[in-house]
Amino acid sequence: MDIAEVAKASGLPASTLRFYEEKGLIQSIGRNGLRRFFSGDVVERLALISLGRNAGFSLDEIGEMFTVDGAEINRALLLAKAAELDKKIKELSAMRDGLLHAAACRAASHFECPKFLRLLRIAGKNQVRQPNKLKDKKLKRGVKKA
Amino acid sequence: MDIAEVAKASGLPASTLRFYEEKGLIQSIGRNGLRRFFSGDVVERLALISLGRNAGFSLDEIGEMFTVDGAEINRALLLAKAAELDKKIKELSAMRDGLLHAAACRAASHFECPKFLRLLRIAGKNQVRQPNKLKDKKLKRGVKKA
DNA sequence: GTACAAATTAAAGTCGACTTGAGGTCAAGC
DNA sequence: GCTTGACCTCAAGTCGACTTTAATTTGTAC
């Protein structure tokens, strides 16, 4: 497939595909003159990458996770990442419950509501700071605002 | 409390506190000369902000969510954000299961494993692109690498 | 054989969330 | 009365993940 086809199939702009190739996340299977040529597999790989990004992993992490070093995958790393996600899921659940409660609660300030405060503390447990995330901004191609 | 006390109590650097104030996320209750003076409440508010960041909301979103416009809170917005989190939670769960499976599965390439591919597709449903997230990098103060 | 849409490169720009740096103010201790 | 350390402001810098731009270079259709 040429880059335009991959772009259409994956929903990613060609510039991103080139960028990913440069980072080593995907590979073109050759060139037709200057033009890259990709195997169909790249589309699934891109899906996996998008998934990882969506789950909050950086491109570098994704690279580590899904590269076969030799023939042996980094199983320990995958398990660690799974555990990370699990923790994150618990935090998000607490946050969601907090929001739902805040929307329903009648206390003028949430800080006066013991239930809310309790959720705050639960969610605050083993918290991990991170740059920025989730936010859906540049959902230009294919995906519409949630 | 002065800024150093808030910094210690919240685990955030003073520079961040100034930045948050500038963005309108927190307020100092006055000045002692040049020096800001904060009420103790700000610490809980900061906890809430950290929580929101951790859940993937941008500072602007957090501002919208937890500002009392008039006396009436944005309940609809809170519900919408809760729903967003709920979706995210489902995606992360699928991803986690995918990782766990990948770590256990014997197929040389995951792309040959139907179970993995199925998880891929499930998680890929109503996906939402986002800038970058989760990653714990600048966890300098208080919080250690996960 | 020529035009042109599409691909290529390298470099620079963007965005959010902070951090860092330079230069200045001020209360307290010596 | 002067140094010091904590705080201040404003501007510029950083980081990850891309995007944009400008200047080419084609493959392909006519």
Overview of the molecule:
The structure is a homodimer of 146-residue chains. Chain A has 146 residues and is mostly helical. Chain A has helices spanning 3-10, 14-23, 41-54, 59-65, 75-104, 114-124; strands spanning 30-32, 35-37. The first copy, chain A, has a two-stranded antiparallel ribbon. In chain A, strand 1 (30-32) and strand 2 (35-37) form a beta hairpin. The longest helix of chain A has 30 residues, at 75-104. Chains A and B meet through helix 3, helix 5 and helix 6 of A and helix 3, helix 5 and helix 6 of B. Chain A binds a DNA duplex (30 and 30 nucleotides) through helix 2.
The gist of it:
With 146 residues, chain A is mostly helical. Chain A is built from six helices and two strands; from the N terminus they run ααββαααα.
Give the strand content of chain A. under 5%
Ends of chain A: how far apart? 30 Å
* Largest sheet strand order of chain A: 1-2
Based on Cα principal axes, name the global outline of chain A: elongated
Q: Largest sheet of chain A at a glance?
A: 2 strands, antiparallel
By secondary-structure content and strand pairing, the structural class of chain A works out as mainly alpha
The number of strands of chain A is 2
- Sequence stretches where pLDDT stays below 50 over 5 or more residues of chain A: 128-146
Overall pLDDT level of chain A: 80
Largest interface in this structure:
A-B, 67 and 67 residues
What does the oligomeric state look like here?
Answer: homodimer
SSE string of chain A: HHEEHHHH
Count of discrete alpha- or pi-helical segments spanning 4 or more residues of chain A: 6
What value does the Rg of chain A take, in angstroms?
Answer: 20 Å
Fraction of helical residues of chain A? 40-55%
